[in-house]
Amino acid sequence: MTTPDTLEIQPTGPVVGSIRPPGSKSLTNRALVCAALAKGRSRLAGALDSDDTRVMLDSLARLGIAARHDAREQTIDVDGCAGRPPAQGAELYVANSGTTVRFLTALVALGRGTFRLDGNPRMRERPIQDLLRALAELGVYARSEAGTGCPPVVVEARGISGGRVAVPGDVSSQFLSGLLMAAPCAAAPVEIVVEGELVSKPYVNMTLAVMDAFGATARNDALRRFEIDAPRGYRATDYAIEPDASAASYFFAAAAITGGRVTVEGLSRESLQGDVAFCDCLARMGCRVEYGQNGITVAGGALSGIEADMNAISDTAQTLAVVALFAQGPTLIHNVAHVRHKETDRLAALAAELRKLGAGVDEGPDRLRIAPAALGPAALDTYDDHRMAMSLALVGLRVPGVAIRQPGCVAKTYPGYFDDLARLAGER
After folding, report:
1. Could you read off the pLDDT of 291-329 as tens digits, one per residue?
2. Which residues are catalytic?
3. Fewest CB atoms within 10 A around its CB: which of 114, 224, 305, 306?
């Protein structure tokens, strides 16, 4: 199906219904890495089919790791390499997938040969130097080809020797997650120390949980220091992937801003994904949240602005910013400076697009303050960022004349998003 260059969103009444989003991108790509490094065959159930997971699968194939993906059944069977990628070198294209480039830069270091990882123009602006420096401390020669501290990355791999390494935590938790997942396959035990404030802590806990499911345990001291036994490796396993909690935030927000009631199936308060905490923000704003064993329900109410530290759940910051447009009083989203290094500079992009709608927005180095105002029609740019498109589309559920430019960028993590949103909005 051809995706239009511009998609106008149709206003609706209260959004009421149930939905199960596709599998978590974060869990799918972590499970793919652990399964690829395991000894034996693993099956991933509920796996996401999206641009980000496809570039991961393509890269694993280029590394000689067989993975059979049944998109209809949402399963992936992976024949692991027992800790050593078979290919004696490879060219890997990762598009704009941060998890893929950071996880695979660490993974290919376990192999033998020369590996080059590159992506689209935005990927060539995304930082990776902290990971390259950490790998160097573990005996790996890895460099930014252009000398910018960003991809393309070249890794001259001879295995990871083990030892002690320090990694900064303030730019991306994916550096730490990549090191953690590679560490059980090093030649000797690895100790990782986090320098400074660690952003997106729930994603590190997610990494540890997936590693544990595949038989590798990383002992940690309050996410500040990690000890990983090696060469221990991973064991093959069958692994079930939860629905994507970041994607779920858009449907929860749809209920909030339309005064509706939406249940997202397959999630609970005990989810591995920290982004379920987005519901706590909605509860503080005035929504009613009900947690079940196999679903979370949000019912809209009179919304009030809040102050929210979203460092731990920054992938939902854009969603909350849209909900803030319909609240009484301003909302302050802060401690999210690291989102400037995502698919786009998300703080600058959000400020620009919300102002087009008529909102008052004050942008700081690590924050946005959003003051509700009378909103009007606008054609909104997405910056080739899936989360800009998915969050901004929600405005159109209430405001006539809202159009999303280049909506096809949602294929990065949720190809069927607009179809699912239209179906849910039409269920009432």
Report:
1. 999 999 999 999 999 999 999 999 999 999 999 999 999
2. 315
3. 224
